[in-house]
Fold this sequence. Notes:
Structural class: alpha/beta
Amino acid sequence: MVEPIGIDGLATALRTGAREHIALVGGGGKTTALFALGQQLSGSTVLTTTTKMGRDRTGGNAVLFSPSDLELAEGLVHHQRVLAWGQDKGHKAAGVSPEACDRWFTMADNVVVEADGSHQRPFKAPRPFEPVIPSTSTMVVACVGSDALGRVIADQCQRPLRVAAAAGCSPYLRLTPERLAMVLLSDRGSRKECPAAARFVVLINKVDETHRRYVDELADIIGDAAPVVAIAEFDPSQSPETRGST
């Protein structure tokens, strides 16, 4: 049985160690998880993306654009935790290269990377050039929003044809626990580009009582292939984005 936890317990539930390079992939909840881990991991931490993020989603963190190594080091000294982006694109901030993330992991205790985009959809399967995971990642977390659980693939998933192909079904069928497990564990799905040495974890977000049976069935199907962590639905006032501070 998977017991949903509060967002404040995410780092503990993921069994994070003293130093982590975490890549967040998949669907709903990546940005929330990014800011939660930033608050919960011990030591100096760089939060970043290799894709794009909303310019207004800073979680109260100090923001650096295209920082030099010296600027990043100084930011970590002053703030302990920084949000590092590439170029400012107006309402969007461009990501950085995976090589930059690898380099920053030699400078900080932790790096947390939003390594995938889903256009606000709760689940997805990647295109050939996705996700963009740094090579030194120690953990890959595949995110699934509860809005996708048991729903019609074409209605709720980004790139539904790719999801359906990985699940071996029509995109007009529902995303059952069996089908979701197939996509999560597929090299054409959520495990795509996962470094061989990285731990792989499934994270289900916004879980309430109506989802409990589904999540338990999913965990039983996945078995020892990957841990399954469930985050309970929470009030927006408890979001790490609204409670963050520099």
